């Protein structure tokens, strides 16, 4: 946008023409409790701690002076083969984040991860760092599907309607295992085995992991 923020416009089916994407102004027509349109920070592609957003951040850093606010803006991007790399930066504290997107064309999948770099010469403490953020299209109801289990009783189906709260799926065992699969699936509650629009993701990581699904009072997920 005009301030250099990288905004998230669409997660879903393929778009043949970029002109068909929703405009940021259209996505921000929600009205907040204080009577103003939503802030661009609500649809950031990679949300850091700070500003007016109270949503779960993808990146939270404490700097030597105690500051935790972090505002990342677009710096550059490159495309190499099947991988897009978008560099975001912040000048005062020397934080650089590269958002990486790899297209697995054979399977119609997008692989995402983030790389965080300290260019300041001083140490800072990373409290939380996620691989990616997503925002689902506006809809009043969504259903979350995930799998839990026990030894010999793995991959038990769990389904629940998303309420206005935060739902955390995670394991702290040090490795992915039978207790909770690093996977989520979200639909409008009507998708079946063979029909329906489904949003899903899986963490390609064998250690500790966390997936946070959050729905606010305006039904943003």
Mean pLDDT: 90
State the distance separating the first and last CA atoms.
22 Å
Question: Per DSSP, what share of the residues sits in E-state strands of 2 or more residues?
Answer: 35-45%
Number of helices: 1
> Rough shape?
globular
Strands, count:
12
The class by helix and strand makeup works out as: mainly beta
Question: Which radius of gyration do the C-alpha atoms yield?
Answer: 18 Å
Residues in helix, %: under 10%
The order of strands across the largest sheet is 2-3-4-5
Verbal overview:
This protein has 221 residues and is an all-beta fold. Helices cover 2% and strands 38% of the residues. The chain has 1 helix and 12 strands. It has one helix spanning 24-27; strands spanning 59-62, 73-80, 83-90, 95-104, 109-118, 125-129, 143-150, 153-161, 166-171, 183-187, 198-202, 209-214. The strands form 4 sheets. The chain has a 4-stranded antiparallel sheet, with no helix packed on it. The chain starts with 23 loop residues before the first helix and ends in a 7-residue tail after the last strand. The mean pLDDT is 90.
Task: Give descriptors for this structure.
mainly beta; 4-stranded antiparallel beta sheet; 1 helix; 12 strands; 38% strand; globular
How are the secondary structure elements laid out?
Elements: H1 24-27, E1 59-62, E2 73-80, E3 83-90, E4 95-104, E5 109-118, E6 125-129, E7 143-150, E8 153-161, E9 166-171, E10 183-187, E11 198-202, E12 209-214
Antiparallel strand pairs: 1-6, 2-3, 3-4, 4-5, 7-8, 7-10, 9-12, 10-11
